[in-house]
Amino acid sequence: MSRSPLAVLLVAVACCAASLAPSVAGAVQGSRYHDGVTSTAGVVATESPAAARAGRAVLAKGGNAIDAAVTTVFALNAARPQSCGIGGGGYMMYRSPDGKTRALDFRETAPAAFKADSLLPPGLHKTFTGHLTVGVPGTLAGMNAALERFGTLSLPEALAPAEKLAREGVHVTTSLSGATARRQKDIALFRAAAGIYLKNGQPYAPGDLLVNTDLARTLRTIMRHGIGAFYGGPIARLIVRDMRAPRPDTKDPGLLTVKDFKAYKPVWRIPLHGTYRGRDVYAIPPSSSGGTTMLEMLNILEGYDLHGMGEGSAQAITAIAEAQKIAWADRGAYTADPAYQRQPTAQLLSKDYAAARRSEINLSKAGSFPPGVFPAGPTALGAGEDVNPRGSTTHVSVVDAKGGAVAVTCTIEQEFGSTVVAPGTGFLLNNELTDFSSPGTANAPAPGKRPRSSINPTIVVQSGKPVLVAGAAGGSTIIMGPTLAVIDTVDFGMTLPQSVDAERFDDQGTNKLMIEDGRIAPDVLGQLTSEGYTLTKQGEYGVVPRMQLAGLAPGPAGLATAVSDSRSDRGSLAVPPSAPPPVKAPAR
To answer: Which of 318, 393, 441, 561 is catalytic?
Structure first.
C-alpha cells in the first residue's frame, strides 16, 4: 500500500525513537487521518453519507438519538444494502439523557425446522450462500420496538427517507461497487437479486444511480399496514413462497415459514456494566459475545500499566493480545443464546476472575489458554468456532443535543448476506444461520435459537456523559474495534479521530496476530515474532474492523464529536448549531 511522504517520514521517526527506547513507542498518525465533525446540536457517524444525511435531518428537526438511529438504519437498506437491511438483524445500546441504559437484541432466529445437522450435508450453503442460510429477520421489529419505547417519530416517519432513497435512487459508492464485484457470481444465481444489483450482468460502477422500486414498494406497504405486513403478512408470504420454489440449478430450498415470522420477537435486555479505570462501560449481553469478551479483556488489562508501556510497544500489544486469547477461550466455551445455554456472565466479568487469569500471562511469550472453570456454573463445552469468517455488517453511532446516545450495529452477515432476494420484495436476506458453530458446542444450532454474534455496541460514561459511543463492522474482528477504542482513549489519551485512525491488531487464540504493521516500529514487530506470534501483516490500514465513533466531551460545553473510519466510506455528519431545539419526548 502506498503512503504519503509525510506518513513515511513519521514511520521513520517512530522507528528511530523506538530504537532508543524499545519498550515505549508512540502512536503515529496515518496517511488517511481526518478530523471528526462536532456540534452541540447532535452528530451521526455511519459508513453511508446518504444514510447519515437522513439521520442528521431527524436530529435537526428535533428528533432524539433513537429517532435518528432508526431512520439511519432504515436508510442504510437503500444506501448500503450489502451490509444492512430489513432482511437482517443486530443489536442496539441506548443511553437516555437522564442516564438510563437499555440493550436491544434484534438478532435473527433459526426457523422451527432448523436442526443441529441442517448445514452439515453438502450444498450451496457451504459457500455461505442461499436459502438454507436465512434466519428470521429482526431489524424491522427491533427498530419498531426502539421507536415505540424511546422514540418520538412514528414508524412511517422513520421509514420515509429510506423509501425515498429506494424510489428515487442512490449513487453507488465505491464500497458498494466493490462488494458487488466480490459477490457477483453469487448474486447472479438469484434472478431477483441480479435484477436489482447487477447492470447488464455487471456490477454498478461508482457514481451510477441505483433505483430499487421493489424495496420502495415494500417500505410503503409497511408504512401503511405496520410491521404485521412483514411478520406474517404479504411480505412474509412472498419470502416463504421463494423458500419453497423449486430451484433445479441451485438445489437450496429454505426452511422459513409464515409461522416463524409471526413468532419473532426482539428482546430488551439489561446491559452489561463494567468499570475501566474509573469509567463506566456499558456493553451488549448475550446472545452477542461482544460485551462479555470485551469487558473480560478490560478487567484483565486493568492490572497493567498500558500507558507506561506505551502505545504501539511490544509489551502493550502482547498484554492486549494475551488478554484477548483468554477472553476468546471463554467466549468459545460459554457464550451463546441465553435462552438455550446457561451463561456464567457474572463469573466471567468478576475482577477476581480477571486477576486469576492475568497471573497466567507471560508478557515475554505468546501463550495458549483454556477456558475458565466455574464449579458452581455451567460446564465448558467444546470450542464454538466461528464457521463463517466473512462477516461484514455496519454500525451507527448517534449523540443528540440532550446527550442521549445510541450505538446500533445492523447486519445481514457477510456482504450481500445470502445473496437471496425474494421476488417482489427488493431487500437482501441474511445468511446468519452460518454463525452457528458445530453440534455439541454452546453455540450449536437449534430451532428458534439466536446464533452467537460478535457485534459489540458500546457506551463509555465519564463524569455523567457518554464520552465514547462505539461500534464496528467486520465479523469476528468486531469485538476488538470498540475494545481498542476504549484502550486508546482511556490509556493512551487519544481523541476519537486519533482512535479511529490508530493501528489495529487481533489474535483470536491461535498466536496468529493480525496486525496493521505499517506504523509499528520494526524492532517491535521483531520482538512480537520472537515471542511466538505469527504476524499477518495488513500494511498501514487493514480492511476490518471498521469503526464508527461518537461522544460528548466530558466538560460542561456539551460538544459532541463523530468520526467515521477511513477504512471505508465516511458518513459522519453534525447538525448545524442553528437547528431548532429538540422537542420533548412523550411520556411512556
So the answer is: 393
